[in-house]
Amino acid sequence: MIKINAKHENPVKHKTDCLIVFCVEADKPEGDLKKLDASLKGAVARAMKGKRFGGKLNQTLLVNTLGNIPAEHVLLAGVGKKEELNLDKLFQVSGSAAKLAEKSLLAKIAYAPLDSALAKKLGTKKPSSYDPTAQAVAEGLQLALYCFEVYKTKKKGDPEPVRVKEAVLLAASSGAVAGMKRGAGRAKIVADATAFTRDLQRHPGNTATPSFLARQVQAMAKSAGLKCKIVSPPEMQRLGMGAILGVGQGSAEPSKLIVMEYSGGKKGQKPVVLVGKGVTFDTGGISLKPPGNMHEMKMDMSGGAAVIGAMQAVARLKLPVNVVGLVPAAENMPGSRAIKPGDILTSMSGKTIEVLNTDAEGRLVLCDALTYAARFKPRAIVDLATLTGAVLHCLGHCAAAVVGTDQDLMDQLIASGETTGERVWQLPLWEEHESATKSDVADLKNIAGPAVMAGTIMGGAFLKAFVDDVPWAHLDIAGMAWGDEKPCAPKGASGYGVRLLVDFLQNAG
Ligand code: BES
Ligand code: MN
Ligand code: ZN
Fold first, then answer.
1. How many A from CA of 500 to the centre of ligand 2?
2. Is the CB of 360 inside a 6 Å radius of any atom of ligand 1?
3. Ligand 1 within 6 A of 37 CB?
4. Cβ 302 vs Cβ 501: under 8 Å
């Protein structure tokens, strides 16, 4: 657990293992950096002259201060061109710097205040409110230093690895300290929630079953102050949830629908309902997946994990909105009772579904949750799901795809994607896609014929049949939930969606 504090002190007087200084692109030190460099006897100017550092985005240079100032090292962290700097870049650079400090075995770090021109540009609010730059810096460093070692045994005598334990955000004035502390406090809530989501994604399928997810949420809900209810198979049966029950019937693990409610908004204000796919392991079922990367399908509950993390953050931030989180959780296995290609299921909506491919199970667990969502009389429904491999072919690991029924809602999500760096890109959803979901023998089929392709859109087109007259957006996050190392995320589960949803709900208040 990293301790984060904010205080007003001159960086050249502050004692720390590593003083991190954000630098814009330049060929010689200017402004605050020039003052610091005077104390360092021109070390920064020499590095810049020798082209070892130029402030390029995410460029870093560690300089030993040789006793010239109380800080043992100065870490120069490039933020790129001044005009192009935004909060997302600051977030990333903060993370890159913190990782380099940790790799260099420096346990105490401090961030010099942002140059006043930069701080102004990034919209630092009045001192009484929270400082978004402090939030970005604190969030970036915590998420960059995230690690998950639950399943590694420790050998006796192994040295404890050096971890960053303490970070101080230095304020330019004493009046700025309170706002920075508030920003750091918010960052802790959001980073903790994202880490919780990453943990849930990373647990293997034999730990993270639908029942495990339900227990985790019950414990979280209690501590965060959420209402929580678990719908189990007998009640699902009564409700007629034939689609989610169908997916789970090949598994020994019972399916669970996790329901979370947060009421921070006015009484009677219609809630936003978030729905997250919670397939705790996707073998493909009888339409079995090839073995190559099947192990990665332990993350097929990433949409659900994002909804769970977002609910935790929203409650702890006490956002003034009403939000409901639904996670239909099931394990997709090829057991002896499993659904077979050609089987027909009756969903909670009453619509019948011909299952042509048991590997298109995400839309089956989601459709019953979408029908269930209507009982909350939502003003909007947003679902997140690792629904199709196809989204990787069109957007790679760069953005989630969105389709939906309401342009305003999608625009809000796209805007939150830009702010947080958790990008969202819209695909069309046309009448042709919808008619391609019609089955010859039932109301709908769960995959379209080869003539249609457009796998990601077809997933959305299927789900649309279960939403009546409510603004709805579907995010396919299969490319974003899991990926290579990034400045603020190690390789593997990314926690995508938590920061996006928090920003979206904050603006929806
Ligand atoms: N969980 C998968 C989608 C997926 C693929 C997520 C790769 C993350 C990485 C989903 O249930 C699935 O199997 N989708 C099928 C749909 C097809 C049968 C229409 C797919 O993408 O192949
Ligand atoms: Mn599947
Ligand atoms: Zn799946």
1. 25
2. yes
3. no
4. no
Angle (deg, nearest 10), helices 498-507 and 177-202 = 130
Strand 352-354 relative to strand 344-346, pairing: antiparallel
Rounded to whole angstroms, the Cα distance separating 407 from 81 reads 33
Ligand 1 atom with minimal separation from the 279 CA: 1
Cα(448)–Cα(461) distance, rounded to whole angstroms? 10
Domain boundaries, the chain: 3-179, 193-508
Cross-strand pairs, 438: 444
> Does residue 289 have an active-site annotation?
yes
- Would you state the CATH architecture of domain 3-179? 3-Layer(aba) Sandwich (3.40)
Ligand 1 atom with the smallest distance to the CA of 458 is 19
Residue 35 among the catalytic residues: no
* 361 in contact with ligand 1, CB cutoff 6 A: yes
Per-residue pLDDT of 357-399, as tens digits, reads 999 999 999 999 999 999 999 999 999 999 999 999 999 999 9
pLDDT value, residue 66: 97
Distance (Å) from CA 501 to ligand 3 centroid: 21
Q: What is the pLDDT of residues 277-308, one digit of tens each?
A: 999 999 999 999 999 999 999 999 999 999 99
Contact between 286 and 249 under an 8 Å Cβ cutoff? The reply is: no
**pLDDT tens digit string along 38-65?**
999 999 999 999 999 999 999 999 999 9
Is residue 362 lining ligand 1, measured as CB closer than 6 Å?
yes
We find that the CATH architecture of domain 193-508 is 3-Layer(aba) Sandwich (3.40)
Q: What is the pLDDT of residue 157?
A: 87
Mean of the per-residue pLDDT values of the chain: 96
Mutation probe of ligand 1 site: the residue of 359, 393, 456 with most atoms within 8 A of C-beta: 359
Cα 230 to chain centroid, rounded: 23
CB 347 within 8 A of CB 241: yes
Q: Which candidate, 387, 386, 378, 423, places its Cα nearest to that of 405?
A: 378
Ligand 1 contact, 476 CB (< 6 A)? no
* C-alpha 388 – ligand 3 centre gap (Å): 7
pTM over 0.70: yes
Ligand nearest to the CA of 459: 1
pLDDT at 131 exceeding the cut of 90 = yes
Same fold for the pair 3-179 and 193-508: no
Q: Which atom of ligand 1 is nearest to the CA of 282?
A: 1
Angle among Cα 504, 404, 275 to the nearest 5 degrees reads 60
Query: What pLDDT, on the 0 to 100 scale, is given for residue 159?
Result: 86
At residue 271, what is the residue type?
P
Length of the chain: 509
Can you read off the two tokens belonging to residue 120?
């102004």
Structure tokens at 445: 């089929």
Check: CB of residue 459 under 8 Å from CB of residue 388: yes
